[in-house]
Amino acid sequence: xxxxxxxxxxxxxxxxxxxxxLAKDAPHWFDRVMEYVxxxxxxxxxVLLVVWCWWxxxxxxxxxxxxxxxxxxxxxxxxxxxxxxxxxxxxxxRRPRPFLDHQGLDVLVSGKTDFSFVSDHATITMAMGxxxxxxNRRFGLVGIALALLExxxxxxxxxxxxxxxxxxxxxGTAVALLLSPLAMLLLTPLLRAVECSAWGGWxxxxxxxxxxxxxxxxxPRTNGKRAQAEExxxxx
Length: 236
Hints:
Blueprint: H1 2-5, H2 11-25, H3 28-60, H4 65-93, H5 98-101, H6 120-135, H7 137-156, H8 162-178, H9 180-196, H10 219-235
Helix pairs in contact: 3-4, 3-6, 3-7, 4-6, 4-8, 4-9, 6-7, 6-8, 7-8
């Protein structure tokens, strides 16, 4: 992998210069926006998207609420697990950052001293996006689009090769999909227990007026009407 980085004649490096070259032609303020978006903004947007999906599932309720919320809980867990898997991968590949081997890159973020392959940001966002897609297709498509944008930003910022991003996408997708059945097997019973509890039920399903706990008992009213009817019969 490092051998590819040393040559400027391969498609990976060529695409790096093409995408990063856009930063040189862009206004300074736009580069600052891309720096924030690529470093923090899209990660925050992904978290907010998962919270939004959870709020929607919670309000809809239904018998599948526990399994749906369990799938959403898996999204951040999949991202965290994918990053842990990436630790030995980075140590094994040991690919330097592109700006260390190639001159003329416009690096928007300084202080990156760790290895380049694979991109943590691409891994996290794609793992969350794919896990979100398993839980909800509409929100998941938005999440995957955010992950693709994150990958573009990392190359635009000059801190990753395109193959670093592609590797992150592959790692995040593999962890989110391959471990999803096991995660659902463990998380769904847990969320069902939380749903039935008095302290955590609101995390899974919003309480409505039709819930058994809030439904008025019709017994006294029915008995009262029956008693009035019997009085009228006696009077007749």
